[in-house]
């Protein structure tokens, strides 16, 4: 039988239906803490809970196009860093039907995400604090209260995103996606500390960053400071 003849007789209903979704982990650093954007779910399943932004993949849509659609159309954003994270396919992860999710994570400076939440572009939402400690993760609402377990397997997705981010910190330039174009060494260290979940010693951190040649001085200093303004740096063109 030729392939054309086979396709004519092929019946996709021979197999159980499976839907595919994209879930998005949007992360930033705010007030020296790692944060994740969570949207309030107003309808079932898991109504009146906070979860990751996401949507079903269109029948003629590429996965990356779906992720970009969520970011641009639903969140009105243009991320500086967007990466496929992992596929999540536990049989009972969605109570509606068999749903496989492909998770992506993106990094944005805090001002852009804070503006999104404050101006209610995405409906009720929060920039929840993420604390990753050993084998556990805590997700805390902006009012300081720990959130109820996230819907579906979103806590697992956030955990994997934090671990991926920490693993990439030393050898990639992901930290720059969480900073303005020009930044101080203090701001750069705060981003590293928020991602790692620990304080770093200032002198060796600054020496390591300067020796890496991944940043370069701009010749300018920050403004509006009560104390001596710090020197501003930017990502090196050679990085």
Automatic annotation (TrEMBL):
Q: Which ranges does the record mark as transmembrane?
A: none
What residue stretches are annotated with the NrtR DNA-binding winged helix domain? Answer: 175-234
Under CDD domains, the record lists: NUDIX_NadM_like (cd18873)
Q: Which residues form the Nudix hydrolase domain?
A: 25-107
Q: Which PANTHER family would you find in this protein's record?
A: ADP-RIBOSE PYROPHOSPHATASE (PTHR43736), SLR1690 PROTEIN (PTHR43736:SF4)
Record's protein name: NUDIX domain-containing protein
Write the lineage as a comma-separated list: Bacteria, Pseudomonadati, Pseudomonadota, Alphaproteobacteria, Sphingomonadales
